[in-house]
TrEMBL record:
Family matches, as SUPFAM superfamilies: CsrA-like (SSF117130)
Subunit relationships: Homodimer; the beta-strands of each monomer intercalate to form a hydrophobic core, while the alpha-helices form wings that extend away from the core.
Protein's gene: csrA
GO cellular component: cytosol
Alphabetical GO biological process terms: bacterial-type flagellum organization; mRNA catabolic process; negative regulation of translational initiation; regulation of bacterial-type flagellum assembly; regulation of carbohydrate metabolic process
Protein keywords: Bacterial flagellum biogenesis, Cytoplasm, Repressor, RNA-binding, Translation regulation
GO MF annotations, alphabetized: mRNA 5'-UTR binding
Gene3D superfamilies the record matches: Translational regulator CsrA (2.60.40.4380)
Organism: Paraliobacillus ryukyuensis
Protein's recorded name: Translational regulator CsrA
């Protein structure tokens, strides 16, 4: 893991296409602005994990449904 220190309005560049900027600092919270191409999905980690879980459940239901349909 790379750990960087940034101050207000300073940025981090990832590759050519992604820029992360510290836009606000309020006590123990910071606000980050992320500029990236539209085809790159950006989510908070808890949202990303929820999407993965939902996709897993949907795939499981599809497999179960296929098995049921195959029996007939």
């Amino acid at each position: 893991m790379l750990v960087l220190t940034r101050k207000l309005n300073e940025t981090i560049q990832i590759g050519e296409d992604i820029e992360i900027k510290v836009v606000d600092i309020d006590g123990d919270q910071i606000k980050l602005g992320i500029s990236a191409p539209k085809h790159i999905e950006i989510h908070r980690k808890e949202i990303y994990l929820a999407i993965q879980e939902e996709n897993s459940r949907a795939a499981s239901v599809s497999n179960d449904l296929l098995k049921i349909l195959k029996k007939d």
